[in-house]
Write a structure and sequence with these properties.
The protein is mainly alpha-helical and 305 residues long. It has one domain: Orthogonal Bundle (MetI-like fold). The chain starts with a helix and ends with a helix.
Length: 305
């Protein structure tokens, strides 16, 4: 187990280094922040002074070495856009995204396990056909289109819900409703397929022959063995949420990490972009390691391998 964790940490560290080098180079292709933060009639001396203050007059390798040294001292730079420490902005925005993603994913996971398991009991029956149709529709509807339609219907026309921004429980309804559709639809299909395959196994028939209750057979014997593919997809979805649901956060004015990154790109705020990518990438690596540990907890064969 410790060897697996060490191996995945090594992989994650190598991936993180390559990613940060790539991001460091790409953000500088968006243009110089000097052109954005100084007026058009700024003198050449003013431009040179700001360029030197930002360290942009150095070669790229020197800029990267300086930034890496500061990161190792836990100094992620200062936001040009808001004149605050970049890590402070990231630390403020990330919990908003994680809270939204956690609630959405929990609702999608629990609902999909129940609906998908019940649908697998009688494949191609009425309940299965209805569940399959609704889940496919949920997985296929574009998030941005549903978000705009939900705002127009429930906020503008009916006036039941607020249009955007964080706040009380009502402010969470539209973002969560929009985000839950796709993961719920995907997970229902995964749970249904895995459960159908598991319910046809000999040990399930043996449990039924011994008189075990159908509820116990379904949720005790079959579900545990069908959970590996479900955990895989759930982990992928969790990583997507950790990276920020940019479109939904933009539509609903949600102050999450996705919206922060878009604003930082528009403002050419290199420090915020680099800090955000570094934190999110680290979080995704941690999520993947947790998924590996869940594999080992659910299936002993994973521990052996």
């Amino acid at each position: 187990m410790f060897a697996l964790i060490a191996y995945r940490l090594g992989q994650g560290l190598a991936t993180l280094v390559v990613l940060m080098v790539t991001v460091f180079l790409l953000v500088r292709l968006t243009g110089s922040p000097v052109d954005l933060y100084l007026p058009l009639d700024a003198s050449a001396e003013m431009r040179e002074a700001l360029t030197a203050r930002l360290g942009l007059d150095q070669p790229l390798w020197a800029q990267f070495a300086t930034w890496l040294g500061e990161v190792l001292r836990l100094d992620f730079g200062t936001s040009l856009w808001q004149n605050r420490p970049a890590i402070e902005l990231v630390a403020t925005a990330l919990p908003e995204t994680l809270a939204l993603g956690a609630i959405t994913l929990a609702l999608a996971f629990v609902g999909a396990v129940i609906i998908g398991s019940l649908a697998a009991l009688k494949p191609h029956g009425i309940f299965d056909s209805l569940a399959s149709a609704l889940s496919l529709a949920g997985a296929s509807i574009p998030d941005f289109w549903f978000a705009l339609m939900a705002v127009m219907v429930f906020a503008v026309i009916l006036g039941w819900l607020p249009t955007s921004g964080p706040g009380g429980p009502l402010h969470w309804v539209l973002p969560v409703l929009t985000l839950v559709l796709r993961p719920f639809g995907i997970l229902v299909q995964v749970v249904r397929g895995a459960m159908i395959a598991t319910l046809s196994q000999p040990y399930i028939r043996a449990a039924r022959a011994k008189g075990a209750l159908e509820r116990r057979v379904l949720f005790r014997h079959a579900l545990r063995n069908a959970m590996l593919p479900v955990i895989t997809i759930t982990g992928d979805l969790a990583a997507q949420f950790a990276g920020g649901v940019t479109v939904i956060e933009t539509v609903f004015g949600w102050p999450g990490i996705g919206k922060l990154m878009i604003d930082a790109i528009l403002q050419r705020d290199f420090a915020v972009l680099q800090a955000g990518v570094l934190v999110v990438a680290t979080l995704i690596i941690v999520i993947n390691i947790i998924i590996d540990l869940l594999y080992a907890a659910i299936d002993p064969r994973v521990r052996v391998s």
